[in-house]
Design goal:
Elements: H1 3-34, H2 42-52, H3 57-83, H4 85-94, E1 100-102, H5 130-143, H6 157-165, E2 175-179, H7 185-193, E3 198-203, H8 206-218, E4 223-227, E5 240-246, H9 254-267, E6 268-278, H10 287-299, H11 305-310, H12 313-320, E7 323-329, E8 337-342
């Protein structure tokens, strides 16, 4: 990247960290002082925070800057990637392939795929270089400093993935299927945690899959990257001893999540494990924090966020056939929120 591009992205990351770390902390203190007994239901919590912080500069500027950074992220990241197009394409094409890459340009994308996740122009595949732009620039410079969504300003999203990978019940696995793999950040954590496992990573975005395959090949990691919807992978059933998904469920509507759980059940061998890594439900947070999270639903390209954080996941798992369901926070701050379940032996 040019120095100007790098500086622009670093400025966005620093701005988001300041908003999430300084302004948001100040607004939280103001709210807790004003409302010692906040409501429980999310919409009532939302109304309460907006009422008590109506004149709060910290609250107003935190929300303004968070929205501005979300809008500006791709305005800066995509031109930076485009300027490096030749280098990126050359690098991706020159990797000695490890594992496999299976693309299916004929597949029918689910309706929710067109919703433009995270305000990305045209959605997750709205640009040929969206994969590297997201992985290297948006994640690397803007989201990694934290302070947005479920990732706080003093946390590292890569560390969170490695902590989560170690939360699976067994010491080792032979066959892992990851649903909604993106550019492979959690896939890499799974590979390091379970180096003997054969991993198949399922993802809708062709751009993300191509870049993920190149990154894994560069690291010498043999992962099978596979383009398909998580709710209808067409992979052979009954073959995995672990099926996992990292922050996938808040990107799809509730009915699709139920289909994904049925598909995970089908993919697992009897006795296999399911591990879902997500944002904790609103009931696990205090009122102010729940409102900060819920704000994503209407303001940062997360149309299914509220549904995912209020749906009855344990009940949905039982409907899909799972047993031994349990949930817990991977850290004291309850993010990522780990849900484990098992497919019965018979």
């Amino acid at each position: 990247m040019t120095q100007a591009s790098r500086a622009g992205l670093e400025f966005l990351g620093a701005t988001q960290s300041y908003a999430g770390g300084v302004l948001q902390t100040r607004a939280a203190s103001e709210y807790r002082a004003a409302e010692p007994q906040p409501p429980v239901a999310i919409l009532e919590r939302k109304a309460s925070v907006e009422h008590h912080l109506a004149d709060s500069a910290a609250w107003a500027f935190d929300r303004f800057l968070t929205r501005w950074v979300a809008e500006e992220a791709y305005v800066r990241a995509l031109p930076a990637a485009e300027a490096a197009r030749d280098h990126i394409i050359s690098w991706v094409g020159s990797r000695e392939p490890a594992g496999s890459l299976t693309l299916n340009p004929q597949f029918e994308a689910p309706e929710y795929w067109e919703n433009g996740f995270h305000l990305a122009p045209g959605g997750w595949d709205g640009h040929e270089l969206m994969g590297p732009a997201i992985h290297e620039l948006v994640f690397g410079y803007i989201l990694r400093p934290g302070g947005v969504g479920a990732v706080r300003h003093d946390e590292n999203l890569n560390d969170q993935r490695h902590v989560s990978a170690r939360c699976a019940p067994r010491e080792s696995y032979e066959r892992i299927i990851e649903l909604g793999a993106g550019t492979g950040r959690f896939t890499a954590a799974l590979s390091r945690t379970y180096p003997e496992a054969k991993i198949t990573a399922v993802e809708l975005s062709a751009s993300s899959l191509k870049y993920a395959h190149a990154l894994a090949s560069e690291a010498g990691t043999a992962v099978d990257w596979y383009q398909a919807p998580a709710e209808d992978t067409r992979l052979e059933g009954g073959t995995a001893d672990l099926v996992t998904a990292y922050t996938l469920m808040h990107e799809v509507p509730t009915e699709s999540n139920q289909e994904i759980l049925h598909e995970a059940f089908r993919l697992l061998a009897p006795g296999g494990d399911l591990m879902i890594c997500e944002v904790a439900p609103y009931e696990e947070h205090d009122a102010f924090r729940a409102v900060i999270l819920d704000w994503e639903t209407e303001n940062r390209g997360e149309p299914y966020w509220r549904d995912a954080l209020t749906m009855d996941l344990p009940g949905m798992l039982r409907t899909a056939g799972f047993t031994d369901t349990r949930s817990f926070g991977a850290s004291e701050r309850k993010y990522p929120w780990i849900t484990l379940a098992s497919k019965p032996l018979d």
